[in-house]
Specification:
globular; five-stranded mixed β-sheet; 2 helices
């Protein structure tokens, strides 16, 4: 790993190596999942959700409390079912079986927790800095990777954004979910210093990945990225930083508020020419 060629950025932490052929690999601390950051009162690695008593190798919708309570999210192959939420910009919650469940590791309701299973490569792009491409074809609905990093509070997210230099990348992703009829749960993840392969994914106005909050062992969701369509080998992997996919509108209306927005170089036909800017963190 002295010259960085064919280096495994995960340092062996992932089941499948995350390749990088750059002469100088990026500097950050690799973590396969979320870690507790400033202002976060719950350790994302702590088991805080109840388990099911199913004794079969794979849970069934007619008898599993997990599936009966939260609904079935995956096909028997592990691919994502349609999870459009009741309102644009908000997704239906996904809850997987967890460490307290009695079902086997092969249960079809265990997908994101298995971690990275695909061959991905972090590489330099022509105009967008680092990027990630698939080294194999990926069918629609397949789990690709997490967007993992420090889980921080709104106050900390605001502090970090205000202290950010104009030439620095903003990695903070804010995810909002309906937590009932009138309340919204917010999760802020920043992989700038601690993160995984997801931190290198670029924005696209016509992305091939969609992000869904998935809960496994903890009440704090994992930000899971799934293939929104069939993806060819060597194709760059992208998602919309605003949280939109297809005809779905962003959860928050984007407004510049007089702040400088960075140009978008995704090259899509529907490119807005500017990267999304979520001012709700700063309001």
């Amino acid at each position: 790993m002295s010259d960085g060629r064919d280096a495994d950025l995960s340092g062996g932490l992932e089941d499948v190596p995350v390749l990088c052929k750059a002469l100088t690999p990026p500097t950050f601390k690799y973590s396969t999942g979320n870690v507790q950051g400033p202002g976060c009162s719950v350790d994302p690695r702590e088991v805080t959700l109840p388990g099911c008593p199913c004794l079969s190798s794979s849970c069934r919708a007619e008898s599993c409390p997990c599936l009966q309570t939260y609904g079935q999210a995956y096909e028997s192959t592990g691919r994502l079912l349609n999870r459009d939420g009741p309102e644009p910009g908000y997704s239906s919650p996904v809850f997987e079986c967890n460490a307290l469940c009695s079902c086997g590791d092969a249960c079809s309701n265990r997908v994101v927790q298995r971690g990275l299973q695909l061959r991905l490569e972090v590489c330099r792009t022509t105009s967008k800095g680092w990027g990630v491409r698939a080294l194999e074809g990926i069918p629609r609905g397949t789990f690709v990777c997490e967007y993992a990093g420090e889980v921080i509070s709104l106050t900390e997210a605001k502090r970090r954004q205000l202290n950010q230099r104009a030439d620095e990348n903003n990695y903070i992703i804010a995810v909002r979910e309906h937590a009932g009829t009138s309340s919204i749960t917010e999760t802020f993840v920043d992989p700038a210093q601690v993160g995984n392969v997801g931190r290198f994914l670029n924005h696209s106005c016509s992305p091939n990945l969609c992000m869904l909050p998935v809960r496994v062992h903890s009440v704090i969701p994992r930000l899971a990225l799934f293939a929104g369509r069939d993806i060819a080998a060597l194709e760059e992997l992208t998602f919309d930083y605003s949280g939109r996919y297809g005809t779905q509108r962003p959860a928050e209306a984007l407004s510049t508020g007089g702040l400088q927005r960075k140009p978008c170089h995704c090259g899509a036909i529907n490119c807005t020419r500017l990267l999304p800017l979520d001012l709700s963190i700063l309001s």
